[in-house]
Prior knowledge:
Layout: E1 23-24, E2 33-36, E3 43-50, E4 56-65, E5 72-81, E6 84-96, E7 101-109, E8 114-122, E9 127-131, E10 144-145, E11 153-159, H1 164-168, E12 179-182, E13 189-192
Antiparallel strand pairs: 1-13, 2-9, 3-8, 3-11, 4-7, 4-9, 4-13, 5-6, 5-8, 10-11, 11-12
Amino acid sequence: MVYNPGKNDHPVAAGSSFRTTRYTMPGWSFNAVMSQGPTLGTKYYVPIFVPQPASWDRIGINVTGAGAAGKVARLGIYSSVAGQPANLLLDAGVVAIDGIAFQEQTIVWSPGRGPYFLAYVADGSPQVSVPNPADAFNPPLLGVAGTGGGAPTLINPYEAGLVAEVAGGLAAVATPNLNLGAWIWAMVWLRYA
């Protein structure tokens, strides 16, 4: 099954806490998810592409392996300029990462067509749901990186050492010329209103 990249309602195993009736990563196409553990204090920017004007009312992450007690992650949305995260559009606040559940914040976001970046930074190290790289494609806002003769790996930016943004709020402007890494850290989801 291939998902409509504009509005992909995501499958979930029976008994999962991942409530996905309208959750999506606009511009992505994938068949399955897996768990990954983002690095504490690293801000990850998830590239998305909104194909047409739409409205979202939730932003969240699916915690599949709990972090330490009391730990949280801050989520947000940045504009895209020349394929890089630029200005903060929305700081959604924090969600708990110390329990296995889908953690979300209520938002009001109705962007126009175009590229954007979802953001994640945490003061703990949970396991979260990400698209399985075996059969996933994301918006190539930053181009592709070779994989030693294999299929190209789409890349996304990240920035280490930002644990202070968890409590203090996301930076108003993303740092230019960010590090680039494998897109496997795409863990932030939006819910259609």
